[in-house]
Amino acid sequence: MPTLSSRAGRATLGVLMLTLSALAVVVAATSTPVRAADPVTVLSSGFEDGTVQGWARRGTVELVENSSAVARTGTRSLLTSGRTAAWNGPSRDLLTTVARGTRYTYSVWARAAAGAGSVQLRMSVERRWQGTANYEQVVNSTTVTDGGWTQLTGGYTLANDADFFAVYVETVSGTASFHIDDFSLSYLPPSPIQTDIPSLKSVFANDFPIGAAVGRPQLLAERGQLLAKHFNSVTAGNAMKWDATEPTEGVYNWTDADAIVAFARANAMKVRGHTFVWHNQTPAWVFNDAGGQPMTATAANKTLLLARLEAHIRAVGGRYADDVSAWDVVNEVIDENQSDGLRRSTWYTITGLDYIRTAFRVARQVAPNAKLFINDYNTNVPAKRDKLYNLVAQLKAEGVPIDGVGHQQHGNISWPTGAETDSMIATFVPLGVEQQITEMDASIYTSSSESFTTPPADRLASQAARYKAWFDVFRKYKANITSVTLWGLADDETWLDSYPVSRKDFPLLFDVQLQAKPAYWSIIGGASPTTSGQASPSASVSPSPSRSASPSPSASASPSASPSPSASRSPSASPSASASPSPSGTPMPGSCRVKYTVTNQWNTGFQGDVVITNTGSAAVNGWALRWTFANGQVVNQSWSSVYAQSGANVTITNAAWNAAIGANGGTASFGFLSSWSGSNPAPATFTLNGSVCTQG
C-alpha cells in the first residue's frame, strides 16, 4: 500500500474552517477537454546577481553562499558547505509566494561539490502551524555527482494552515557539500473540469460504489469538484494511518482525517478507513518496550503491544464509527515466501497471529456497523492469493470477524490480465466474504528504466484496454464486489511519481489537467467493440517493479503480459453495437458538418477526434456516422460512442447519453483509436443518418 502524499496562501494562512456547508461542492458548467495552459513561474533563482536570492541555511553552522566554482547556466550557483548533519542545507521561505490549494511544480538542478563524488539529495517542504512542524518530501532520494548537473523536480499542494512554509534541499545521509542552480516554482492555471461527461458514480450505480484515495489537497477547488462529480466513496490515503493519527503515544491528530470525513458527509459519500495495522507508517514508539528499547519477543512485550493496538483502534475507530463504512483493519500481512505465508513484521514476531485477531475483535466492538477487511497487494498472483485464502479461512473458522478481502490491484499496462483478475476474485467467492478493489492504478511503465514527461498515445491506449479488461471482470462479479477504489484522483498527484524510481507517471483515469483520459472512456460503456480489433497491450513479458517496503507488483510474480481475454460481461452502460447499427435517427439531408482531426499519431496507430455539427433546423435524436477508410485503418476503441467496422467501412453510433444533437449548431463529439500502416489519409466522405455531410 503506497503512501499517498498530501501535497502545496498568500501571507499568513488563516485557520481552515471545513464546515459541511463550505464543503458541499458546486460544479460550474464547462464543456469538452480544454487545452493545457502554459505554466506560470512565480519564483526563480539563478544566482547570477552574486547574492543568495533569499535562500538561507536551515541549521546554525553550515555556509550557504553564492559561488562561481560551477554553474548550470550562466556563471554562478549556490554552494552549501560546512554541514554537520544531513538535514543542514539551503532553504527558501515561500509563505507569501504560494497560494493554498494550488499545486506547484518545484524544480532545482543540483551537483555535488568538487571531490564529493556521489551523494543522495532530496527536496522537501517544511510547514509549521502554531508551533507544530510537519515535513513532506517533494522529490525522493536522487543520486547527484560532482561530474554534472541533475534535476530534482516534483509537485506539492499546500492544503493546510501554515504560519511558516519553506522548501529545502538536504542529503539523505552524510555531510557532503553541494551546489544548486536554476530553481523554479511554477504552476499550471487550473482547468475547469468537464461537466458534460457521465459521472463514474452514475455509470456504476447498479454495480458498486466507485471511490478514490485522497488527501486534503483533493478536497479543494477543481479537484474537489472532480471528486464530488465522479465518486461516491473516498479513502483517506494517509490521514487515518497510525503515524498521522497518533504520532506520539496518546496524542492524537485528527485535522486531516476530520476534513476528509466532513467532505464525504457534505457530498453523500461513503468513507473507507485505511488502516489500523500495517508494518509501515507506524511510529517507532509503538514497537519500543516499557524502557524505551526495541521490543524482543517476550510475554510482557506481547501484552504491551496488544494493549497499544487496542487503545489505538478504540480511539481512531471510535471517533469515526458513524462515518466509516469499511475498514482495512490489517494491511499486507502475507508473505508468500514464508512457509506459513505470514509476513515476519514486528507485529508478527512479538504477537504471532494475535495482533490480527485482536485488531478485528476490537474493531468490531468500536465500529459495529463497519465492514472489516484484510487488505493486500498482488492477490492476483496464485502463491500469494492462496496463502491469503488459507489465512482468511482459518481466522473465520476461529470466529474472527472478517467481513471481506481487499485487493489492492496495483498494476501496469501489461499486468495483471483480465484472466488473472478473474481468477483472483473467483478464488474467494466460496469463502462467502465481500471483496473490494481498494488501491487500483495502472502505471504506463513496464520497466524502471523508462521515463516520459508526457504519456505516449500508444501507452494510453494500452492503459485504456487494461482498465476495460479489469472493469469487465468487476462487473461480472458485481454480486461479490462491494466497492472499487482508485489510488488517487488524477495524474497530477500519484505515489508512482516517486516509486519505484522518481519520474512522472500517469496511472489514473484523469490527466494532470483533471480531464478524462482514454482509460475513463474505456470503462464508462462508451466503447463496446464488436470487431476483433480491440486494443490490447503488448504481449511482451515485463515483470513488475520489485517490492521492498513500499507496495507495487512484485517482480517475483513475473506474470506473462498477454492481451486480456474477453470476460463475460454484465450489461454495459451504453447500448451494445451490432454489425450494422441503424438507429431510427432523423434524416438530415445536407444539414450536417463533420470535423475529423488526427490528434495523435505514432508508428502503428493514431487517435482521432470527431465533432458533428447539426446545421439544420430540426434536432437529431439518435445518430449514426459512417465513413470508409482508404488504406486499411482499423478502429480498435472509441469513446462517447459505439463503433463497428466491416472491412473498410466504419459505423459510429451515439452513446446512451449523447444521442440528441440540438438544432441550429448543436454538436456531438467522440474519439477513437485506430491502427494504420503506410499512410493515413482522412476519409473522403461522411454520412450522418444516410445524408452526406460537409467537412471542416
Give a quick summary of the entry.
Residues 1-36 form the signal peptide. The chain has 696 residues and is of the alpha/beta class.
Write a concise keyword list for the protein shown above.
single chain, 696 residues, alpha/beta, Jelly Rolls, TIM Barrel, Immunoglobulin-like, 3 domains, 8-stranded parallel beta barrel, 6-stranded antiparallel sheet, 32 strands
Explain this structure to me?
Keywords: Carbohydrate metabolism, Glycosidase, Hydrolase, Polysaccharide degradation, Repeat, Signal. Residues 1-36 form the signal peptide. Belongs to the glycosyl hydrolase 10 (cellulase F) family. Residues 585-696 form the CBM2 domain. Pfam families: CBM_2, CBM_4_9, Glyco_hydro_10. The chain has 696 residues and is α/β, with parallel strands linked by helices. The protein has three domains: 38-187, Galactose-binding domain-like (Jelly Rolls), CATH 2.60.120; 200-523, Glycosidases (TIM Barrel); 592-695, Immunoglobulin-like (Sandwich). Helices cover 18% and strands 29% of the residues. Strands 12-13-14-15-16-17-19-20 form an eight-stranded parallel barrel, surrounded by four helices. Strands 1, 3, 4, 6, 9 and 11 form a six-stranded antiparallel β-sheet that branches. Helix 6 packs parallel to helix 8 and helix 10 runs parallel beside helix 11. It is globular and about 85 Å long. Mean pLDDT is 86; it is low at 4-23, 25-31 and 526-588.
H/I helix tally: 12
Number of domains: 3
What percent of residues are in strands?
A: 25-35%
Largest sheet: 8 strands, parallel, barrel
Report the principal-axis shape.
globular
Count of β-strands: 32
